[in-house]
Structures are given as C-alpha cells and as structure tokens.
Amino acid sequence: MKISTQQLPLAALLALLGHGVAAQPGTYPRNGVADQRPGVFAFTHATLFTDYKTQINDATLVIRDGKVVAAGPAGAVKIPAGAVVQDVRGKFIYPGFVDVYTSYGVPETKAPERQGRRQGPQFDSQKTGAYNWNQAVHPEVNAAEMFKVNNDQATAYRALGFGAVLTQQADGIMRGTGALVSLNTNRRENEVMLLEKAATGLSFDKGTSTQDYPSSLMGSIALLRQTYLDAQWNQRAPRREQNLSLQALTQQKALPAIFQVSDKLSALRADKVGDEAGQQYIIKGRGDEYQRLNDLKATGATFVLALNFPDAYNVEDVYDALRIPLEDLKHWEMAPANPARLSQAGVPFALTAADLKDKKKFLPNLRKAATYGLTETAALRALTETPARLLRAQDRIGALRPGMEANFVVCSARFLADDNVLLDNWVQGERYQLSTVPADYRGVYTLKIGDQPEGRFLIQGKPEAPELKIVPTAGDTIKGSLTVSSDLATVVFNPKDKQKGKAPKAAPDNSTLPAGSVRLSGYYTQEGRVFQGDGLLADGTPVKWRAARLEEATRIAKRDSAKAKPVPVVGSLIFPFAAYGRSAMPGQEPTLIKNATVWTSEAAGNLENTDVLLINGKISKIGKNLALPKGGRTIDGTGKHLSPGIIDEHSHIAVAGGVNEGTQAVTSEVRVSDVVDNEDVGIYRDLAGGVVAAQLLHGSANPIGGQSALIKMRWGATPEDMKIAGAPGFIKFALGENVKQSNWGEQNVLRFPQTRMGTEQVFVDAFSRAKEYEKEMAAYNKLGKGKQKTTEGPRRDLELDALVEILNRQRFITCHSYVQSEINMLLSVADRMGFKVNTFTHILEGYKVADKMKAHGANASTFSDWWAYKNEVRDAIPYNAAIMTRAGVNVAINSDDAEMSRRLNQEAAKTVKYGGLTEAEALRLVTINPAKMLHLDANMGSIKEGKDADVVLWTDNPLSIYAKPEYTFVDGREMFSLTADAALRADIQKERQRIVQAMLLAKKGGAATQAASDKPQGLWHCDTMGQEKELAK
Amino acid sequence: MRVILTLALASTAFAALAQVPMPTPAQTKPVLITGATLHVGNGTVVPNATVAFDKGRLTYAGPAAGFTQDRAGFDAIEATGQHLYPGLIVPNTTLGLTEVESIRATVDDEEVGTLNPNVRAIVAYNTDSDILPTVRTNGVLLAQTTPRGALLAGQSSVVQLDAWNWQDAVVRADDGQHLTWPQMVFRLNPSEDATALDRRQKARETQLRNLEQLFGEASAYRQQPAGRPENLRLASLAGIFDGSKTLYLHADYGKEIIESVRFARRMGVKKVSVVGARDAWMALDFLKQNDVSVVVSRVHALPRRDADDYDQPYKLPAQLQAAGIRFCLDYQGDQETSGSRNLAFVAGTAVAFGLTKEQALTAVTLSTAQIMGIDKDYGTLETGKSATLVLSKGDLLDMRTNAVSRAFIDGRGISLESKQTYLEKKFRSKYGQ
Questions:
Q1: What is the pTM of this model?
Q2: What are phi and psi of A28, to 5 degrees?
Q3: What single-letter DSSP state applies at residue B8?
C-alpha cells in the first residue's frame, strides 16, 4: 500500500466525527458544543495544476477555512504553523471540476394531467399567480428556492471529480435561474450555494406545460421572440399589467443564459433568437456539433458538450442493418471525436456529465474522446476554466488561486492517463475520499514452484484489478487468477487453461505438474519485490513457491504498453450529414448544354436543336452553336429536352418540428423560415424529380397560419443558405374543414372558428386589430426618442406585424381553400379590408369562381386530379386548372406531398388530357406560373438569358411519363444527375459496409450494442398537428 | 339528396349527363373495331388489327388480314391511329367500399377486430359510387374490391365497374382472404427506450401464435363430420386450404415476406400471393424459388428508407420482371379510390424505370387476371375471351397521350361520362369556354 502515513489519522478522524467537521459558524443554531476548526491543510510535493494550463512540479497547496491560501512551488509557499501537512509526492492535484448543466438537488417537474387532443384544447396557463400567459415561460422559477443538498447525487458527481455545479430545473421554454452550488454535503444549503442566480435556462421544448401553445418548434421560437418584446414593453409600461414572469425576465437579462437544444440545427436557431434579443446564449447541444462546425463556430457561442456517445448497433442481419440511417452509423463513429474537433477548431466548450445514463461512463468516455485528439489541457479547460468563466465565477472556482474555493481533486496519475485513479475530491476545504491508491504489483516476475523448472509470472491489467498469466518455460501461456489484499496473495491456475501466446524464452517442460488446479498462498514483501509462500499441487503435493520481480523486464513491458494509441479512423464529413450528402457542394463551372429541345416557358415557346450556356449560376446564352468558355464542360442534349427547373408552390418538406401551429386561430407570428430542415432527404428526391425550388408552407389548421419559407433545393447548404435571397414574404391562410376542425374528432369543438361563418369573423377581426395597431404604432413612432421612453406606447405584436405587412403589400397570402362560398367570402373580406389574396392554393372549386378570382387578381395553385378525400372536395374536377387558365387566371399545379412533388411534370401533363391545354401551357403550370405567383419570375421560372441557371435536362418530353431528369441544375450547380446519383449510391454502400465492419468488431471487442429501430419515415401534411410526422399509409 | 339533385338537373341542358351513368344493357349487336394497334396484354402487339365481338365475347382479335367473317350486321368502329387494350384491372382496392375518406359514414372498408376471415367486401360494394365512372374513363374496367384491417381483414371479390348492384357487378365472388402480416419493423418514439422494442416483439409473437392456432384449427375443421356446430371463422378459411381461394399476404419488409409465405406454406395453404411487397427486392430469389406472385403496391411511392435509391419504388417492377416473378400493380395508399384512375400511369412509370411497355401493360391486365384467377375470361384480348377492352387515342400508359375514346365491358359499350365531366361542361358554359 502506498498510502502515506500522514493520511491515515485524518481519514480516521473524518470517519469518527462525521458531518459538520470543518463548517464555519453560520446563522444556523448548532446542537451540542461548537466544533469550529482551523481547517488548515498543506499539501506538499504535489504536481499541482493551479489552473488548466499551469503545471507546477513539487508544489505546495495551502488551504484554510475552505479557501485556497497559497499555491505555488515548494520554495515559494510557506506552510503555516498548525497546518495538517500531507505529503502527496507523485500525485497530481487539479482544480475541482465544474458542471454547468445539472439538476442537482432540485426536484423533478411533473406534468399536471395532460390535456391532450382527447380532452380538448387548453388555451390558458394552469399556473396560479400573476405570471405569464404561457405555462412554458416561467423565468420566475429559481433553483435556489427549491435546492436541497442531496448526498447520493453529490456523491455521484464528486466521484467524477466535480466540485461545483450549476443546478437548474430543466423544464420549459424559459426555465428560470440556476444556482451555482458546491458539492459539499456536510453543510447547509445556504453554505454550499456559491451564487444564488448564476445563469438562466432556455429551450424550445415546452416540457411539462400542458397548454396547447406552442405545439411546434416554430411556435416555440415565436413565443421566445414575443416574450422578449413583452418584457421590454412591460418595463416601459409597468402599470399596464403586473407580470411577475416578465419582471423576472427583465431582471435576468444580464445573466449568462444556457440554451438547451436537440441538435445542431436548433443550435443555429437558438443563436438567431439570441441575436435578436441581444443575448449570446451558451448552447447545450446533442453532441453532433462536429457536423456543422464552421457554422456553429460563427455563432460565437460557447457549447456545453455531453459525453453520451451512442452504442454500436446490432448489424449482424444484412437487412436489419439497412434500417439504420447512415447518419446514425456515422454518428456512432464520429461522436467521440466531437470534443476534439471543437477544440481543434477553436470553438470554446464546457463538458457536462448530463445525458449519461450511467454517470460512471463519464471518465472512460472522456478518455475515449482523448484518443480522438482531445488534449488533456483542452479537457481540463472544459471542466474548469470554461465553465467557471461561463458562470462568471472564475474568481471562485475552476482554478486554485489564493482566495478561491478549496475545490480540488487529487489523482494518482495524470488526469487522462488510463491508470489514473481519482483519490480524493476536496470540496470547500473538506475531503471526500474516492478511493485509495491500489498497490501496483504489475510486472514481470520469475516463478519457481517446488522443483518445477523456472517460469514467468506476469501481472498485467489494472492495479485495482490485476490479471495473472503464468508463462511456463515451454508450452502455452496459462491464465490464472491473483488476488492480493494487504500484501497477502492467493494464486490459482490450471495448466489446462492455456492461451495462445509467445513461446517462452527458455527451456524445460511443465508437464510434470499433475492435472488439476494449482493453489498457492503467500505474501508480498516490498523489499526485493517478492511473492513467496506455500501451496498445493492438484494431487496434494505441498510445494514452496516464490515469484521475484525482474526490474528490467518490467520496465520494458511498461514501455510497450504505454505506446501511444493510434487515433481511431473516422469517416469523412458529408453535407448534409445524411444519405446522399456530399463532401462539398457541386461547383459552378461553365456548362454548355448542346442541341436540346428547349422549353423556354417564355413567349419564344419551344426551341429545337438549341444550346444553352450556364455561367456563374446564370443562364448566360441561348442559341445555336454556342462556344464553350475555358474551363467549362459540355453536355450533349441531342434527343433530350431542357426545361426550366420545376417550382413547387405548396410543399411541406424540409420543415423541422411541426408544420402547424394550429393551437390558435391566428398564428401569423410563426415562421417556417425559422425551422428549415436542410437534411430532409425529400430535398434530394425533389431534385431527382426536377424540382429546384419550393414554398415551404405552414399547414392549414387555422385561418391565419404562419409565414412561409421560399427555398431552393441547395442540398448540402445550411438552412439559411437554402432560402432564396430577396424573396418576398409569404404567409399561409386557410379556409374550410381543416380550419374549423371538422375532422378532428368530437373533442375539438371549442377553438373558434367551428364554422365557415366564424372563419369570416376571424379574418375581419384580425385585420381590424391590425389596422388599429398600425395606427397606434405609427403615432408612437412619430414621437421623439425621449418622449417614446416616457410613453407607454403599444405592445409590439409579432402576430399583428405580419398582418400589417399584408396590408402594406409587403407580405403575400397563399390561402388554402376548396369551396366556392369560402373563396368568395375571403375575396369579399379582402376587398372590404383593403388587402389582396395573392394565391388561392388547392382551390379545387376555383373553376366555379374563376371570373371573380381573375377580377381580384388572385393566382391559383391547384392539384391536377385529387378529389373525394373529404367532403369539401366532392366537387373537385381535374379540368379545374384548364378552366381557370382559360378564364385568364395564372394557374400552377402544386404537390402538397413529398412524393408527388417529384412528379410534378406528370401532374402538369394531366392538364393536356383533362381540359386540353397545350403542352407548353401545361409545363408553365410548374415553371413560370408558380414563379410569378411567388414573385420570383424576375430570376426564375423560365429559360431566359440572365435568369438563374435552374434547369432540368430530361431524357424525353418532360410531360411524358417516360421522361426522367438526367441533370438538375440549381444556380448552375449540378445538384442531381443520374451519373452523380449512381456514384453517391456506391459511396453510401461503401461507407455503410465500412462502418458495419467496425461495429461488428466493436461488438466482438465487448462494446455495448443497441437494436436497430426505424427512423420515422413520416411526412408533414397540411393538417398534421404536433411535432411527430405522419406515417405514410 | 341525390333525388333532389337529379330532379334539379333534369331541368338543365345536361340532363342526359347524370352523375353516375346508367349501366349499359347486355350486348345485342356485334361490334367490329378496325385499324387500331392491338395490345393483346400478353406482350403481343398487332398493328392494324381487327377486333370483333358479339354477346360479350371476342370472336376475333388479330391482324386485319386474318379476319374472314362477314362484316355485315356489325357496328363498325374505325379506329386507325388508336390503341386497343384489355380493360385494366385494379387489384387490392377499396374502390366501392370508401366514398369519402374523411366521412366515416361513407367508409366501409375495415371491420372491427383482427380475425375477420368471414367478412365479405362484396356486400358493401357500392355500384353507385361517384368515383367509379371517373376511374373507368382512364381505362380501368375491373377491380378487386378488398377489405382492410390488421391480420385477417376479410375476403375480396372481383367486380366490373358498370353495374346496377353488387350481384350484377360480380366477376368472381370471394376470390381470396387478406392477411395483413404483423410488422417486423418497429420504430421508437423519441420518448421510448429499447424496452419498447421488446414489448412490441412480444406482442407480435402472440399475434403469430394466435394466427398459427387459428389456421391449424381451420384446416382441421374441414374434416369435422357433418352436423358440427357452425363456426363462421373456421368455415370461411376452408377455401385457402383446398385452393379455391387465394391467401393474399400483405407484407412489405423483405423478412416479413419470407416469414409470411413460409407460414402459409407450413400451414398447408395452397395459393398465396404477396401484396405490398415494397421490399420484395430483398427476397427475389425466395419469391422465384417458391413461385410466389406479387401484387406490387403503388409504384408512385417514396423509398422506405432515406438511403434507399430514390427510384427504388419505381424500379421494383423491373426487378421482379428480371427475376422472372409474376407480379401485377395496384394503387393502394392515400386516396386509393379516387386515385385508382391513375393505375395506367404507375405502369408507365415502371416503363420509365426498366419495363417494356408491353410488360407494364401485362402487369395491369393479364398478370392481375392470373393472380386473381379470372384469366380464363379477362386480362388479354384473345378470341373467346370477354370483350372487356379500352380504345385510346394514344399510348394508354402515358398521361400525355392517354385519351380513352371507347370502353367495353363484356361487350357493352359503357358511358365515359361522370359527375366530373358534367361539372366541367356546366362551368365551361358559364364562361363560354
């Protein structure tokens, strides 16, 4: 045993005296006699880290009353009189670790009985008191007020080296404040709390709130934005309402804010919300940050990383393995590299033990992360300096400087070394023993049993769990067992338990041992490092035995085992991080498409045997025998057809976290542009169908829905870069059965409106309010700055802002609609209230009111032949598009469906069959016409010089079912082609196979595994509620 | 309601265009179609063909030169430039059982419970559905009206789409049992852990045990002496053991396909066909070796997994063809009743992704008829067979050219009008179009 003699009395004392040993006197009355002690300790000859990067050899650390007094080289630190001195020679002392993401000692929140769709809607908060209207927004909650010291939880954290944690109730969207507490469990709550309000917490997840709103991710984002505005207004106009939540939010504005997100894309979303609110959030993510590292770095945020690396999957079955998404396979391989990658990219981060089912995996996983290149310095920083700085407590924790909390960890070796053992964790000057130094018997020994020939005795494994191998002079290595306790040793081995191993260096055979187990008992002596004693062979023959350590051989063995481990192989990053992702976006080299039939969707009509030249993302030239600029390439279009890229006016692909915020009748404050999902494989599949752009619409669950996102199918780009720059704002309106919840079951009969009568009133009411609001805002904005500050003024309302934009022709309506009565209703409300309906979408009875639509100037975006799926489409006819076109309405065919979207050319073709449009007219229904109604026609929708190079080369007439896109260009980039697709398929197979092999190997090596479960393959539909996609039938 | 509407329409100029046209009476006069390109349905194409039929049966279908009958007395249709096809057959459909998906009162496709082999779709088949006429106009003239549901959903029947009532519509009553095979593929909700997988696996094993028990007892029940107490369930399953009915196994995942077919064979089922089969590409050898036919679910579908080839559903028919497996195409899924008028186009897509046009046609005519056991009369245009055929001005499988000019069911020239053509004319006249 290596425990130094100085340590023993202290350990004994602690055991005797129990709690409250070194506590300072506080406000609490004490039972019994006072026991205030000096609490002065000096640790000498330590290898001391005063902070994550400063190592002092042969250092002295002095603490008193729970605080650091001195820390420095032995010569520079004077040991005060009366100090308890511990010689920690050979040991390492690190500042105690800090975890900024825990719920240590705070109660879990339990959801009140949930009022789901079955019980009917819940419009209002269930919380009593003068708090915010939304149950998920409760910044007034303070962890400090409910914190209770918890021995079990603290013990688990201390075992990992943590000395202080931020504790917080992780529930809801605005979660309230967290307290910074030490993990000392001998003291009262008042004494372990280092900072009462150290940070605030946020997320997009409404947690246990039972209130309907928000039901979507975009709703959560809108709620956050509006709440920040409300807090400002509440501050300016405090007499308008007493709102304890908003007051609390205002008071917390200066605190660090930790935002928990579910993935890297939501990290980007959170940062955007923060930018608008003037907050730089600290982001606690999922561990997938490496997948979008550059973009996340650009946020300037510090990240909080968990170390819950996924288990390998069971991939033995060829078909079941196919069910595991490529991104999950790759994430298994790359997740342990996440901390290293962030570190190497200079992205600041703290580490947390959160999200680990078994907290004991924290240190092994951290070591695993180190094998991927995370340096010890970076790891230490992420556990000390960074979290302390984030909580603005760097003068109290995270380092060992005079005056700081005496939180430190004593280790047997360097912190990340494989054989390091955390010995003691001192918290606020009190020692918590984690383990004792196990005596290290490992080495190479000679072995002599009775008169047997001399063999070798190898002790390997870990000091606390030694493994024994007997190497006879000839034959195979034998595995044995060795237990040593207090220098008493017991050895058992059976010559039959042979292992394959190198043949020993020299000599005789061991076959003279009788069959059966050999048992040896004995003792270890430090002097000479010898095991010796008595034993019995299997036949009962008594023997003497002796094993003496060979120092030179031991040194060589240790050197060999300490060889640097190779950095594990991981696959390459792809964008997006999903099947069909690429290592980089395709380039924009000049491309000349020769000799094709060009469908211009312009007055020019179809041009035979024509060349089209794409340069720098634009259609540069259209003509015959065009020359190819240098560095370009030619595609032979002979016998093929070139069309403008297809534009889907009505799509719900590429949306994250719900497509409807239908919990209220008017939700114009929510924005699909906040939740674009750039990893939806629907984007790639659309490209394979010749689709280059789409309007991502809010669903149709309420009369005034959310704002749209207009995207191009830039597969691989960030959500932000997928959006069409300069595109005008759009918004979804809806009429009919979805809006009045006709098909939602008998429980949903409370939300207004429930009839088409009520629907009209929602519009009249909303626009009446918007007009009032606009007037009030205008009056307020006219005031001078000084005057504005002293005037209460109107509350900025994101919902009404969007409606004012509509009134001012800055935002355009796409209105889901079916039957003629409601179409006429909205047209008449629009005329009365002074706004325009830009587009009626679906509009299956448009053929009945085409004249009125034409008079209003409304566009129509319809289905080719859908009908009979609900009552309001019983009169839908496939002649609709043709009749409206002939009546002079600008008509498009849309998909509203991820599958049909990739065959929109065929859907357009049906208008030739049903209704007799010309083929050129038919193709315009999915190219220039939707471009016009989306106000994108200046740059998109037709093949015209100067327009965006969004074109599709088809193998056949694009209206024929036999045609398929051979190339789809977006901005002049070859975003899809049959040849590139074939290559991507091959890449996917190869990558899968490589990772599957690695998983099989990991499983064989004893790694934990998990069963494959299928990724939800659902889709958003117009009427999907909530955040779970619907499964296809 | 319908009466009022009809009366109101009677006063308009479109009175003749009733929403569900009157069924055409039996053929009384022979018909002769000349000049068209004949697509027999079995792969054969005959340019400039002559087709003659009388009393509902084809008396000639072949090259013009081979037609020797006296032309007098025929109603002649000159169809040069047009294409003649067997009437398409849509298998595995709720056509006639479901009118409006969201209105429960109009939905009769799924009975409560999981073991309903005694339930028969035919008695709920609604010949007055507004949807039927819109399906016929694109060339679909026969349908297998099929119940839905977990495990044993009930029995399907083959019908023709121009009839006064369901008895009138029957082509083959109660042709098969439909077994929806329990899914092997589970997905976890975000809130669930791996134990949920175990629970579902256990529930599935229970289902399979129950099925095995039922099939075992149903097979034995046939040997019971007369006078036994009547058990509707057991009695209704007799046909799958004596080969008079097909057992349609609805399964998609490759391993489910193999497992379900193995189950049926083990239980002594004579004729099986796999329906859905979206992952049949995983089990091609198995299907071939076991001579199992496949009803491929709607080709216009998304791939099942993100990493699957974008065209996997589109090319599945070609994969089956190449493997030598008999298959036909259905249109199950969202809006399958109203959408089944697009059956020809799923065949067209299969052509774009690997089939020949005639192979694709076979997959919606002859193969369907063979799988449903009606190929003696339907599925091809050959002398002696039913005169159930479609004349189109262009290629029927391409929406760009599909334009049905005439259609005949058992020799009866049926109306190509529908509620939709009526509404088109009504509103075109409003705008003077």
A1: 0.92
A2: -75, 135
A3: H
pLDDT at A529 over 90: no
A658 neighbourhood in chain B, CB within 8 Å: none
Query: Which residue in the block uniquely carries the two structure tokens 């063999």?
Result: A455
| A396 pLDDT higher than 70 | yes
Enter the DSSP assignment of A112.
P
Q: Match 């496709």 to its residue by tokens.
A: B109
Question: Are residues A940 and A726 in contact, defined by beta-carbon separation less than 8 angstroms?
Answer: no
> Which residue has tokens 């109107």?
A794
Does residue A283 have a pLDDT over 50? yes
SS3 A917: coil
CATH level 3 topology of A1-24+38-96+398-437: Urease, subunit C; domain 1 (2.30.40)
Q: By the 8 A CB rule, do A120 and A37 touch?
A: no
- Average the pLDDT over A244-259 and give the result: 97
Are A538 and A513 in contact by the 8 Å Cβ rule? The answer is yes
Does residue B343 lie within any of the structural domains? Answer: yes
Alpha-helical runs (H) found in A607-752 = 681-688, 719-722
Per-residue pLDDT tens digits for A177-228: 999 999 999 999 999 999 999 999 999 999 999 999 999 999 999 999 999 9
Number of domains in chain B: 2
- Mean pLDDT over residues B292-317, rounded? 97
Q: Classify domain A443-561 at the CATH superfamily level.
A: Quinohemoprotein amine dehydrogenase alpha subunit, domain 2 (2.40.128.120)
Reply yes or no on whether the pLDDT at A919 is more than 80.
Answer: yes
Q: Map out the domains of chain A as residue ranges.
A: 1-24+38-96+398-437, 97-109+129-394, 443-561, 646-682+692-709+724-921
Q: How far is B167 from chain A (nearest CA, A)?
A: 25
A331 contacts chain B (CB < 8 A): no
How confident is the model over A605-631, as pLDDT tens digits? 999 999 999 999 999 999 999 999 999
CATH superfamily of A646-682+692-709+724-921: Metal-dependent hydrolases (3.20.20.140)
- The torsion of the CA quartet A586, A589, A593, A598, rounded to 10 degrees, works out to 70
A358 part of contact set with chain B, CB < 8 Å = no
**ipTM of the predicted assembly exceeds 0.85:** yes
Residue among A340, A298, A286, A368 at smallest CA distance from A101? A286
Contact A969, A951 (CB under 8 A): yes
Enter the tokens of residue A111: 């959801």
Report the pLDDT averaged over residues B368-383: 98
Q: Which domain holds residue B358?
A: 88-378
B291: its two tokens: 């001579």
| Domain A97-109+129-394: CATH class, spelled out | alpha beta
> Do the beta carbons of residue A169 and residue A103 sit within 8 Å?
yes
Using alpha carbons, select from A360, A489, A365, A361 the residue that is nearest to residue A434.
Answer: A360
- Chain B residues with CB-CB distance to A851 below 8 A: 431
Number of separate helices (H) and strands (E) present in chain A: 26, 43
- Go through A98-122 and write b for each residue having 16 or more CB atoms within 10 A of its CB, e for each that does not: bbbbbbbbbeebeeeeeeeeeebbb
A983 contact residues in B (CB cutoff 8 A): none
Chain B neighbours among A 228-267 (CB < 8 Å)?
Answer: none
Instruction: Assess A902–B contact: CB distance below 8 Å, yes or no.
Output: yes
Say what the pLDDT of residue A1014 is: 67
User: For the segment A944-1001, what is each residue's pLDDT rounded down to a tens digit?
Assistant: 999 999 999 999 999 999 999 999 999 999 999 999 999 999 999 999 999 999 999 9
Chain A: closest CA distance from residue B427 (Å): 6
b/e code B214-237 from CB counts within 10 Å (16+ = b): bbeebbebeeeeeeeeeeebbbbb
Of A323, A898, A912, the CB nearest to B302: A898
Q: Residues of B with CB below 8 A from A899's CB?
A: 300-302
Q: Say what the pLDDT of residue B13 is.
A: 40
Residues B227 and B265 in one domain: yes
Tokens 């897509």 sit at which residue?
A: B349
